[in-house]
Amino acid sequence: MKNSVVFKVNPQKPDSRKIKIAAQSIREGKLVAFPTETVYGLGADALNPDAVSKIFEIKRRPFTDPLIIHISDRKDLFSLVREFPEEVAKLINKFWPGPLTLVMKKSNIVPDIVTAGLDTVAIRMPKNQIALSLIKFAKTPVSAPSANLFGRPSPTCAQHVIEDLDGKVDIILDGGRTDIGLESTVIDIAHRPFRILRPGGITIEEIERLIGRVKFASTYSSILHSPGMLKHHYSPKAKLILVERNNGQIDKMKRLALRLKEQGKKIGILVTSESRNKFNGFEIKTMGSINNLRACANNLFSILRDFDREKVDVIIVEGISSNGLGLTIMDRLRKAAKEKII
Ligand code: TXA
Ligand code: MG
């Protein structure tokens, strides 16, 4: 199979010639992987059902899992939705461009395949110059899920996209590592009370400061409201065991690691930098300091893929507290975990 074409692009000053070639491919119904501030997306013309269906095929994603539409200008929202709750202006003025996805009542121009037949559509304006120029030059909204195989950790650099999708996507725009490293926050504002369907790069605290209380469903009930929120997701090939934060957490992790090592398993340990020196003799990686959740978020998916490359059998992870971005990090870890220890 032919390799995908990879264009290196400077995210601060994107070379418009390369972006225009990629935009033309989108117009021709082809697929382009591109960086956003969260993770890399696998993009196609959102208004072309045949192009969109290739996304599902290539990712091996079920057609019941709806896609996010990416726009390059706040005004592009108006043709895609048919109802505007009064909070919309506040939300998009404050958080766009940025990692907030709004689920709203869809207009007729949005093909059913994008929304998995739902009456609502998810939309966001990414904060990345490469993504914004690609959409602008394509002159069409771009639907894009994360550019990984279904169920794998989302890609935070072009190499991850190549690992999962080389030869299957026409062009990969390589803009280096993504800024945030975890996906956008998804909020349903089509129904009241507003509901967070997926915690992400914008924290619930930030949203509530702006528009007041919103509902946050547990993983289980969000599955009912958002078809894509499957429980096992973001998974490395290794078995991930998450040890939740509480008394004796580190001792539990150590006992588990020793027991599994005795059984001949290759163990990887993932901890905050504060706990680093407590696991001598083990293959250990740090996500970052507990006081720098942005760094922890940014490293997470990439570290899970590193463990896979090292062919670790079991990854034992130190859970952190669920405040701010900590909630997003724990959401992804809980979904990736095959086993949770409280
Ligand atoms: O940061 C992100 O959001 C990245 C980048 C590429 O923009 N995209 C991303 O897309 O994470 P994806 O497809 O991996 O996740 C989108 C999730 C879906 O799993 C789905 O559950 C939810 O958004 N979603 C999309 N449309 C929806 C709708 N109409 N109603 C409820 N949930 C929806
Ligand atoms: Mg995804």
Description:
- The protein is of the alpha/beta class and 342 residues long.
- It has 2 domains: 5-216, DHBP synthase, CATH 3.90.870; 239-341, Threonylcarbamoyl-AMP synthase, C-terminal domain (Rossmann fold).
- 34% of the residues lie in helices and 20% in strands.
- It contains 12 helices and 16 strands.
- It has an 11-stranded mixed beta sheet with strand order 1-8-2-3-7-4-6-5-9-10-11, with helices on both faces. A 5-stranded parallel beta sheet has the order 14-13-15-12-16, with helices on both faces.
- It is globular and about 60 Å long.
- The mean pLDDT is 94.
- It binds threonylcarbamoyladenylate and magnesium ion (MG).
- Magnesium ion binds next to loops.
Throw out a few tags for this protein:
342 residues, alpha/beta, DHBP synthase, Rossmann fold, 11-stranded mixed sheet, 5-stranded parallel sheet, globular, binds threonylcarbamoyladenylate, binds magnesium ion
Q: Give the strand content.
A: 15-25%
In the CATH hierarchy, what is the architecture of the largest domain at level 2?
Alpha-Beta Complex
Which structural class is indicated by helix and strand composition? Answer: alpha/beta
Bound molecules: threonylcarbamoyladenylate, magnesium ion
Q: What's the helical proportion of residues?
A: 25-40%
Radius of gyration: 20 Å
CATH-defined fold name of the largest domain: DHBP synthase
Low-confidence stretches: none
CATH classification class of the largest domain: Alpha Beta
Kindly report the name of the CATH homologous superfamily of the largest domain.
DHBP synthase
